[in-house]
Amino acid sequence: MTLYGSIEAGGTKFVLGVGDGSKLVQRYRFDTTTPDAAVSEIVAFFKQYELAGIGIGAFGPVDVNPASPKYGTILNTPKVGWQNFDLLGALKAQLNVPMKITTDVNVACYGEWQEGAAKGKQNVIYLTVGTGIGAGVINQGHFFLGRAHTEVGHIFLQKHPDDHYEGHCPYHGDNCAEGLAAGPAIQGRFPAGAASLAEDDPFWAIEADYIAQLCLDLTLSLAPDVIIVGGGVSKQTQLFPLIRQAFAAKLNGYVDVPALNDYIVPVALGDNSGVTGALLLAEEAAREA
Amino acid sequence: MTLYGSIEAGGTKFVLGVGDGSKLVQRYRFDTTTPDAAVSEIVAFFKQYELAGIGIGAFGPVDVNPASPKYGTILNTPKVGWQNFDLLGALKAQLNVPMKITTDVNVACYGEWQEGAAKGKQNVIYLTVGTGIGAGVINQGHFFLGRAHTEVGHIFLQKHPDDHYEGHCPYHGDNCAEGLAAGPAIQGRFPAGAASLAEDDPFWAIEADYIAQLCLDLTLSLAPDVIIVGGGVSKQTQLFPLIRQAFAAKLNGYVDVPALNDYIVPVALGDNSGVTGALLLAEEAAREA
């Protein structure tokens, strides 16, 4: 039995895992405070095991270019104390294990690609709509990377005519997807949260419109084979038919896309897309070491 | 002296070139009518020369995946007679010369990357704003390709509050970039065309706003090192400061981008981005043959 480690480094919590292959056998969570505290927790937890590799999915912005001297460094984040913190370097200094790091959404994308809803595809988008909005992108079988990783949650959207919410994004107000459609923006409209809304509440058509607009923009700019929608908001499964319907109306046949039931789909791995992908990334790190 | 051939296959005209390396020595144009007529013109013109390779930039949608059995085939175009026409196959049947084909905007992107405004960059977008709107994309030094090439001209934009134009896109009305900001949409507002407008006409701020929105979306989804803006509308050089200003206001510091004077830039090769890129692609075809 070969053990691998996974780290899901989030802005509010860290989730560590130990897996036999991609099968999780142990999990440990702690709240995100300072980088030093996080590193201590991670090192203490993983030192209990003999690991062949560690895969990390981190909140961004983070340098995920293996060729960069700053690979594994958290970049210009508003998160106090984390700016320019070399997370990968700090872990490598204390754990003698091969490691790879990418974004939190990229590991989820990787998990869904290898073992979930995107098996056998080459161009995959994992779109999370939860506390924030973001996307992991696999293009021709590799993580997409330009000058940096994508930040698609802040793409500007057309505001729905029936929506009078002032928006939640500190940078873009009600202009961007995250400001209009992420969990906190839903809670901004309905303080009791999404769970308090009936399945047929008319708000879901508005939410679906926003997600459909974002899927449209991603279709036109990244041309994926499939868009997997995950994150807390996507647990409202009544959204999917509404998203597909709004997407079809907007695209209006301009480009060919796969049948929409196979194109805009929910995650297949539930809450485990990220940990699965991080464990697979750990295996990759071990193979390449 | 080694001669190469270039084909810019457009919806209204074809432009053929013969170059000594990437230096154009002969050019020939004809109107786009039927596929058969185009192939006859191309074959007759190129048979006058001993060519080492031919590079083709074609209007889309076109299959530009070298691994695809339909590589070089015009796909689902509204252009009568051209649907599913195997352009590359038809040319190969009559010209015994190594050939490569990509989109018209990709060859322009390639030209600007190798010899123009994007020298030394790895992630390049060439955005044309002319008769239509589209982008050529080079990612990590290779043409970006997902399930298909991008179609960014149809990304949805927020309509400017001072703009009351009904939009020009037959698919998306006033919702998409092309419907709001391409040449025909300008002419729809001002029948005498863009050239009739003063440099300080307030419309240019609206046009700049649309191009800035598109640059913002592309920044967030494709993370380029540079966005080169070409096409007829970009000859209005007063647009560039307005685009950069609107872009900065919208992005609002959310992600780091290069200094805007180096990030959103005009073409360096004038009207020759496409032919330069096609000749370079011809060289590449010859090298790989």
UniProtKB/TrEMBL annotation, chains A, B:
EC numbers on record: 2.7.1.4
Key words of the record: ATP-binding, Carbohydrate metabolism, Kinase, Magnesium, Metal-binding, Nucleotide-binding, Transferase, Zinc
GO molecular function annotations of the record: ATP binding; fructokinase activity; metal ion binding
Keyword 4Fe-4S annotated: no
Zinc in keyword set: yes
Signal peptide location: none
Top-level EC class: transferase
Stored InterPro entries: ATPase_NBD, Carb_Metab_Reg_Kinase/Isom, ROK, ROK_cs
Reactions catalysed: D-fructose + ATP = D-fructose 6-phosphate + ADP + H(+)
UniProt xrefs under Pfam families: ROK
Cofactor: Mg(2+)
Family in the record: Belongs to the ROK (NagC/XylR) family.
Protein name in UniProt: fructokinase
